[in-house]
Specification:
The protein has 193 residues and is of the alpha+beta class. The protein contains six helices and seven strands, in the order αββββαβαααββα. The strands form two sheets. The protein has a five-stranded mixed β-sheet with strand order 1-7-6-4-5, covered by helices on one side. It has a two-stranded antiparallel ribbon with strand order 2-3. Strand 2 and strand 3 form a beta hairpin.
C-alpha cells in the first residue's frame, strides 16, 4: 500500500513538474451574481502592511497562489512579463504564497520576497503567505473557491500557480488551472477585452 501511495505521489509530482501550455479554463456563464466582491477584502502584503483590494477598483486582476520550490515556479518569469506589459493598461497580478502542496513554499515571507526579487525580478504585489485550502483556508480563497460567495462556481485549488481572473467590478470571471502558462492566448484575450 505504501508503495502504491509513493508511486502515485511521484506520478503527481512528475506531472506537475513539466510545464505544459494547456489552456484549461473553468467557467460557468449561467450565474453572475455574487454575494460579495473581491473589494470586500483587506489582507497583509508580504511586508506585513495592510493591502485593501478596494484600491484595485476598475482593474482586471489575476490572483495566483505561488510557491518557490515547485516545477511550475518558472511561471514567475511569465507572470512578471505579463504584469510589466499590462500594468499601465488596468491589469494587476496579486501573488499569494502558499505551502499547501508538498511543502513547496516552506520559508517565511522575507525569504519568499528575496527569492522572487532575486530570481525573477518580481514587482507585482505579493501578499503574506496563506493557506489556499483545507481547514486553515484564508477568507479570500473561500471567496475564490465557493460559488455561494463568488456567485460563479465552486472550484478546488488543484496545485501551485492556479489563476483566478477577476473583472473590473471585483467579480470572479474565470479559473485557469495551474499548468496553463500565464501568457496563454486565453488569458491575453481576457486582459485585452
Amino acid at each position: 500500500m505504501r508503495l502504491l501511495i509513493l508511486i502515485c505521489t511521484c506520478l503527481f509530482i512528475f506531472s506537475c513538474s513539466s510545464v505544459k501550455n494547456e489552456s484549461t479554463v473553468l467557467t460557468n456563464q449561467e450565474s453572475t451574481s455574487a454575494t460579495s466582491s473581491l473589494y470586500d477584502f483587506t489582507v497583509k502584503d508580504i511586508e506585513g502592511q495592510d493591502f485593501n483590494f478596494q484600491s484595485l477598483k476598475g482593474k482586471k486582476i489575476m490572483i495566483v497562489n505561488t510557491a518557490s520550490k515547485c516545477g511550475l515556479t518558472p511561471q514567475y518569469k511569465d507572470l512578471q512579463s505579463l504584469y510589466t506589459q499590462y500594468q499601465d493598461k488596468g491589469f494587476v497580478i496579486i501573488g499569494f504564497p502558499a505551502n499547501n502542496f508538498l511543502a513547496q513554499e516552506p520559508g517565511p515571507d522575507e525569504k519568499i520576497a528575496a527569492f522572487c526579487e532575486k530570481n525573477y525580478g518580481v514587482t507585482f504585489p505579493m501578499m503574506s503567505k496563506i493557506s489556499v485550502k483545507g481547514k486553515e483556508i484564508h477568507p479570500i480563497y473561500e471567496f475564490l473557491t465557493q460559488k455561494d460567495k463568488n456567485g460563479l462556481l465552486d472550484s478546488d485549488v488543484k496545485w501551485n500557480f492556479q489563476k483566478y481572473l477577476i473583472n473590473e467590478e471585483g467579480q470572479l470571471e474565470k479559473v485557469i488551472l495551474p499548468k496553463t502558462n500565464p501568457k496563454d492566448p486565453e488569458i491575453i484575450k481576457w486582459i485585452e477585452s
